[in-house]
Amino acid sequence: MKIVALAGSIVGSKTKIAISKVVEILQEKYPKHEVIVLDLADYKIEFSDGRNYFEYEGDTKHVAEAIMAADALIIGTPTFQASIPATLKNIFDLLPVNAFRDKVVSTIVTAGTSKHYLMVEQQLKPILAYMKAHIVPTYVFIEEKDFLRKEIINDDVLFRLERLAEDTVMVTDAFAEIRAKKDVEYDF
User: Which domains does the chain have, with CATH numbers?
Assistant: First the structure.
């Protein structure tokens, strides 16, 4: 199984800290799975201009192809102005409408306060559903108060990250079994 952990912003540290923690959990609990970290701050991504993702070059092509090749994605995003950052939206715009078909997508959201928890439900999940993702229903929402000195200090958040990693792998395995059974029905 190939899992892409995407840190969907080029600024800040909290989302990257959360993504790093879930990657650490995945590597410890599921060492046979390939986990790829895509921190958008490490890449120079072009703005989407309507081309097919494979027509881009350099970092843009690398990131898009890594996402398209994944079986599962864990998307980490901060909340900016009660929405997702433009860098993450640009990634979605670079990909085809059916980019997440047969992929499991789970989310980690960081925000300054609890007032932004509905951003996931009202903005991020509809985009993922439109792009045909199998969305892990529960997500991890992490507030400013859950961090101290660039570490997650809330044990409940750490437990929820561990559960998110487990749910992502389990749901991906379940959908792979369903697809395999469905494929057997076809004679070609």
Answer: 2-184 (3.40.50.360)
